[in-house]
Amino acid sequence: MQTEKITKHQDIRSITRAISSLTILFAILFFAVGLVDAKTEWPKIVSSQDGTPISYEIYGAGEPTLVFVHGWSCDARYWREQLPYFSKTHRVVLLDLAGHGHSGSTRSQYSMRSFGEDVQAVTEATGSRSVILIGHSMGGVVIAEAARLMPDRVKGLIGVDKLENVEYPLTKEELEQMIAPMKKEFQTASRAFVQEMILPSTDSQLREWILADMSAAQPSIALSAMEEMMSLYVSGQLAELFDEIHIPVRTVNGDLWPIDYEANRRHMVSYDAIIIKGADHFLMMDRPDEFNQALESSIDSLLPKPTK
């Protein structure tokens, strides 16, 4: 009887030790995973050429590195639907341009060149020698400026609902008329301006979030960036910029505005586009599944073809 009790106690102690060991093992694994997650989620900071701190994040692994650049009065959050998809196969870099998101906002002038320097600083900080730059809206112009600064790193550009016509004829008077309402009352006018880019079929909650978010931008920063970007069309310098960039260009666009393929190809060594029917300016958020597939196809078209 005594022997039987001892055996039972030994069994209980063995089970207790086993449970304790498993608990410790799970705790270690949980802590280790937590460290990995924490490491990948912490944003990083790098100084742009003028000393402005630029916030960026890196996820995943695999070359080429994909650097996503947001548009006017937006930030890195606008790529939230692309991060899980592309970080499975590529190193994905998200950043906030100066004056946007969590980056510094002390510049007196927000030019496309200075934004290009922001992208350059982040890209060089990753150490990658093989990069594809992806830019939404204003970001499509920014990535061209960045590519001019990094001819040895950037292998291709992908504009997102941008670069429909790099020769678009815009007069100084038309630009003034476009910006005048925003100079007078920024929040109301910018909201109306952005609303024209969103289709009625777009999810109502997403539409309201975009409108509220973009109209909350700092007016002086937003107006400076808008004038700097659109002035490139007035002067013809946007087309000249692409004359200097000897890399292929692709775009993934909605069908709100027509594309002038001939005009683009006069200034690009290679250009093609994928059009998503019935999509608006924020197609990467409202139509993420179709957009991600189209973007993946565009990325593949920029990669070297394997030799047979």
Order of helices and strands: HEEEHEHEHEHHHHHEHEHH
State the low-pLDDT regions, or none. Answer: 1-10, 18-40
CATH level-four homologous superfamily name of the largest domain:
Alpha/Beta hydrolase fold, catalytic domain
Number of helices: 12
Per DSSP E runs of 2 or more residues, the count of β-strands stands at: 8
Radius of gyration: 24 Å
- Total domain units: 2
How many strands, what sense, and barrel or not for the largest sheet? 8 strands, mixed
First-to-last CA distance: 78 Å
Order of strands, widest sheet: 1-2-4-3-5-6-7-8
Helix-residue proportion: 40-55%
CATH class of the largest domain: Alpha Beta
Looking at CATH, which topology of the largest domain would you report? Rossmann fold
Secondary-structure class: alpha/beta
- Name the average pLDDT: 90
Quaternary structure annotation: single chain
Organism: Desulfopila aestuarii DSM 18488
Protein name: Pimeloyl-ACP methyl ester carboxylesterase
InterPro entries: AB_hydrolase_1, AB_hydrolase_fold, AB_hydrolase_sf
Pfam families: Abhydrolase_1 (PF00561)
Can you describe this structure?
It comes from Desulfopila aestuarii DSM 18488. This is Pimeloyl-ACP methyl ester carboxylesterase. The structure is a single chain. Helices cover 50% and strands 14% of the residues. The chain contains 12 helices and 8 strands. The protein has an 8-stranded mixed sheet with strand order 1-2-4-3-5-6-7-8, with helices on both faces. Helix 4 links the parallel strand 5 and strand 6. The longest helix is centred in the first third of the chain and has 40 residues.
